[in-house]
Amino acid sequence: MLTPPNILTIAGSDSGGGAGIQADLKTIMALGGYGMSVITALTAQNGQGVTGIHAPDPDFVALQLHTVLDGFPVAAAKTGMLFSADIIRAVAPVLRRRSFPLVVDPVSVSQSGSRLLQQDAVSALVNDILPGCDLLTPNTPEAEMLTNMTIENMDDVATAGEKLLQMGARAVLIKGGHMESSIVVTDCLCMEGQPPKALPQAKVDTTNNHGTGCTLSAAIAVGLGKGLPLQVAITRAQEYLNLALRRSYSPGQGSGPVNHAAGLNL
User: What is the pLDDT of residue 59?
Assistant: First the structure.
């Protein structure tokens, strides 16, 4: 039996279990990793929305990170909801000294429309987290927020990807879930010195799409932690998410989560 790679998620907690830390840890285990967490915020939420957010002291967030890194050899990590500029500044120096791949999911707004990244934290994210990250995974609204441009078509996606590369990300995956299409969702992978690569997946007609971005970025981190090349890690993560969407169900009211156990023989 191969020892699972240690995969770290630095993100917020979702009390409804569909996104954030909970989605990340479910994904990591389902794909054969050992999951560890640094919790940046507690959210009170369910499938209908977020009713409250409580953030721990930034020094305690940094203490979680230091303690995990002191006790475990990390194979890969991802960030999700970082919430505030102070939390970003607390973890950024540690992440700059890392020796493992880092996937950054620039979570800013929840599926229900609640802000998960404070407005004054955007510049801290751009200046302190993006430079040197191995992969940035914004959806279209997040890419628009980071680049201050409007994205309406694939040419715009390519332009946004180039701008994000210039900000210091080593690679950018702009997710196409918000682009209009009835049959396909096309993510776009942008890497320095290469033309943008369209990575399409069949569109799944479901309202159970809570936590899709968290799930995809965590799945990519697992692939990188297993030593897969970046594009292979991305396409395998896409396939996992697509299956989880196809086999999703509604455990409660509102927008349901994807089925993180879809690929397991339970």
Answer: 98
